[in-house]
């Protein structure tokens, strides 16, 4: 298995976090003993973050990924803390998925945010977008600034530790713009992320194609460019030794004329 390690059901919206004034830029080189705390309290990013380093291209048959560290450690620490305060995760029936007509718990927490009126249907459940929180909007702006791509929706997944995980799937829902990448921002514990070609899954697979394995670091951005989600499944497997939480944001572009 190739391993790339780079350093360095419809629910009502329950989150009405008030908008805050734009964040001041966090300067990592500063002495943090003084008023950094005060700056932090002014909230997360005006979209002015350090430049992503270094961009790395990862390619295989039908797979096209770009990976970089988008945020410095200080920026990423701060963003994680703000998301822990702001994001309201689905609970009760809203947190379950439909599989073969039955409701199932998922091994992580989820929330959906985005532009007004948007819904996104996956695993048999339609999720409506809560209004952007200031931190999610600032992260989205940073992603747009560095990629030139616009996004109108984000799926937030929170993994409390390495027991929480996500099974193999593709993000190929019909309401997603097939020309747009999915931009995945990771904050918190670094986790393995595995891509498997659709023809090389299971014991009786038609072809032998090596899976592609990455480690998604704190503050990283992974771009899953077309046609990756047509040909490759991805998963975040259990990693029992990981004891710390992780938040993942997948920014998506939903086609307005295909929304339900
Ligand atoms: O947490 C992750 O990195 C995976 C998220 C994911 O696969 C998805 O949102 O489709």
């Amino acid at each position: 298995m190739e391993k790339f390690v780079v350093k360095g059901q419809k629910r009502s919206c329950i989150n009405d976090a008030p908008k805050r004034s734009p964040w001041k830029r966090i300067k990592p080189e500063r002495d943090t003993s003084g008023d950094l705390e005060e700056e932090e309290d002014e909230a997360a990013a005006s979209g002015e973050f350090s430049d992503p380093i270094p961009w790395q291209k990862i390619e295989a048959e039908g797979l096209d990924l770009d990976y970089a560290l988008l945020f410095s450690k200080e920026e990423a620490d701060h963003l994680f803390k703000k998301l822990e305060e702001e994001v309201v995760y689905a609970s009760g029936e809203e947190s379950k998925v439909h599989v073969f007509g039955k409701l199932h718990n998922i091994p992580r927490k989820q929330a959906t945010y985005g532009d007004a009126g948007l819904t996104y249907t996956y695993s048999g459940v339609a999720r409506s977008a809560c209004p952007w929180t200031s931190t999610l909007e600032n992260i989205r702006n940073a992603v747009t600034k560095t990629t030139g791509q616009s996004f109108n929706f984000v799926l937030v997944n929170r993994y409390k530790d390495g027991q929480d995980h996500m099974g193999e799937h593709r993000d190929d829902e019909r309401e997603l713009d097939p020309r747009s990448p999915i931009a995945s921002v990771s904050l918190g514990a670094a986790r393995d992320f595995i891509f498997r070609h659709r023809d090389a899954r299971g014991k009786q697979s038609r072809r032998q194609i090596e899976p592609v394995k990455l480690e998604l670091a704190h503050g990283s951005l992974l771009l899953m460019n077309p046609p990756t989600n047509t040909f490759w499944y991805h998963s975040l497997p259990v990693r029992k030794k990981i004891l710390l939480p992780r938040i993942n944001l997948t920014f998506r572009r939903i086609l307005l004329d295909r929304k339900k």
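Residues 155, 157, 166, 171, 184, 193, 216, 234, 236, 248, 250 surround 2-oxoglutaric acid (CB under 6 Å). The chain has four helices and 16 strands.
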